[in-house]
Design a protein that fits this description.
By secondary structure, this protein is of the alpha/beta class. It has 2 domains: about 270 residues, 3-Layer(aba) Sandwich (Aldehyde Dehydrogenase, Chain A, domain 1), CATH 3.40.605.10; about 190 residues, Aldehyde Dehydrogenase, Chain A, domain 2 (3-Layer(aba) Sandwich), CATH 3.40.309.10. It is built from 16 helices and 23 strands. It has a 7-stranded mixed beta sheet, sandwiched between helices. α1 crosses α8, α4 packs parallel to α6 and α8 packs parallel to α9.
């Protein structure tokens, strides 16, 4: 690792509508992963700094909650337009700190933008229900009201998209928000905060505080924070869920994954190969919806896939995002590279067949970059660590099952339940799979079944802690609380007072 402290940029927090320098004296390294060097330092907030951000959000809440839904939606419309006009800048910030290609950065930002556009319709989503004359002269109706201060804790792999899965919904619902982005690539969330201010969002409604465990624990235990959204690993997610709920908060924690793609003997293998290339190696495999396991039903699909896949991998252009021909960039930092390469070594030691080895790749001009090449294992078994664990890198395992039932059971037995896919031409098989598989998001001839913003995203089993999935209708329910009002007004009709419930429901 190379350091030149004279060229390292110091980042900041964004609280109360302005940039705030960190004063804890602690900083985290932000890499340019294509070069393998530290380019920025992110301040790691102290408990007191996080508490100050919460105080600012708490102070801003009453006025923002009282703002009409239409006005809140207008801010989201303005924000949407600003994201579109600044797409190149956002992609550059994402790619320079994460390493993914510019096209990938723009694509993921667009998926986040879809949630912003959904939030623009918040007036419709907040409509309650009304029942007239539920009893003699009595009406009843429901409303959904904002919670207060909400917090988001987001991962490094999608520094634009995942925060936008959270704060637009929370803010549109009338809450204020404190975002703790990944300290590995925080520049994009800080820029989004500036765009929100430009869009007309009042100061203090959206705040960004950089930090590590000290910041997370403060958000989880401060009584003023009403709800916490998290995306990241299962180990951390379970900790956040248990700690947050113990402090009487709502928590949605979207966690790890080991996504399987079942390939039936009748599948279109050209379509399967294209799907695997994008789903296994897009964003260098650093995404929770990556396909990391192909389950071949019989030997024929596995053999055909390897035959078609290997030439594609041999010609895959790995390099920095600054080169237009690059198809796969580096992983986030040297630690991630070392972890992924260690898993590849474990796969070899445990007896899997290494078809293509991504270790030791050298990119000309970026010799110190955090690159791992596309890797394929065949003959993987369910007890191997490359099968059981989420590697979070460009490593694909091919497992051979003797039957469809064995393939289905394999997926259902795995501890994760985030996403899955099946490739087949048979409608009966696809329907049975969709019904019986114990997974939250299912694709049929679609490799990465991420729902559109007007649906909700969430896995099952140890891929989700909490009762609510993220964005869409579930997001509205998570960021609001239900209130039901039953009212009776005096009328000109004279009635005696009734103090008990009568048969038939009349009061």
């Amino acid at each position: 690792m190379t350091r030149d402290s004279t060229n390292i940029q110091k980042l900041h927090h964004f609280v109360g509508g302005r940039k705030i320098d960190g004063n804890s004296g602690r900083f985290g390294d932000v890499f340019n992963p294509a070069l393998g060097i530290v380019t920025k330092h992110a301040p790691l907030a102290s408990k007191e700094e996080v508490e100050q951000a919460i105080s600012v959000a708490q102070e801003a809440f009453p006025a923002w909650a009282a703002t009409s839904a239409g006005r809140r939606a207008q801010v989201m419309f303005n924000f949407r337009d600003l994201i579109r006009s600044n797409m190149d800048r956002i992609a550059e910030l994402v790619s320079s700190e994460h390493g993914k290609t510019l096209d990938d950065a723009k694509g993921s930002t667009t998926r986040g933008l879809e949630v912003v556009e959904f939030a623009c319709g918040i007036s419709q989503m907040l409509k309650g229900e009304y029942s007239a004359n539920v009893a003699g002269g009595v009406d009843s109706w429901s409303t959904r009201q904002a919670l207060g201060v909400c917090a988001g804790i987001t991962p490094f792999n999608f520094p634009a998209m995942v925060p936008m899965w959270m704060f637009p919904m929370a803010i549109a619902c009338g809450n204020t928000f404190v975002l703790k982005p990944s300290e590995r690539d925080p520049s994009c969330p800080l820029f989004l905060a500036e765009l929100l201010k430009e869009a007309g969002l009042p100061d203090g409604v959206f705040n960004v505080i950089n930090g590590d465990k000290e910041a997370v624990d403060t958000l989880l235990t401060d009584d003023r924070v009403q709800a916490v959204s998290f995306v990241g690993s299962t180990t951390i997610g379970e900790y956040i869920y248990r700690t947050g709920t113990a402090s009487n908060k709502r928590v949605q924690a979207l966690c790890g994954a080991k996504n399987h793609m079942v390939v039936m003997p009748d599948a279109d293998m050209d379509q399967v190969t294209d799907a695997v290339m994008g789903a296994a190696y897009g964003s260098a495999g650093e995404r929770c919806m990556a396909i990391s396991v192909v389950v071949s039903v019989g030997d024929e699909p596995a053999d055909a896939l390897i035959e078609k896949l290997v030439p594609r991998l041999d010609s895959l252009k790995v390099g920095p995002y600054t080169e237009g021909a690059t198809e796969m960039g580096p992983v986030i930092n040297p630690d991630a590279k070392a972890k992924i390469e260690n898993y590849i070594g474990q796969g070899v030691e445990q007896g899997a067949t290494l078809v293509r080895d991504g270790r030791g790749i050298v990119v000309e001009g970026s010799e110190n970059g955090c690159f791992v090449g596309a890797t394929v294992f065949d003959n993987v078994t369910t007890e191997m660590s490359i099968y059981t664990d989420e590697i979070f890198g460009p490593v694909l395992s091919i497992v051979r099952a003797e039957s469809y039932e064995e393939a289905l059971q394999m997926i259902n037995d795995h501890e994760y339940g985030n996403g899955t896919a099946i490739f087949t031409r048979d409608g009966d098989t696809a329907r049975d799979f969709s019904d019986r598989v114990q997974i939250g998001m299912v694709g049929v001839n679609v490799p990465i079944p991420v729902p559109m913003a007007f649906h909700s995203f969430g896995g099952w089993k140890r891929s989700l802690f909490g009762d609510h999935a993220i964005h869409g209708p579930e997001g509205v329910r998570f960021y609001t609380k239900l209130k039901t009002v039953t009212a009776r007004w005096p009328s000109g009709i004279k009635e005696g007072a009734v103090f008990n419930f009568k048969a038939g429901g009349e009061h």
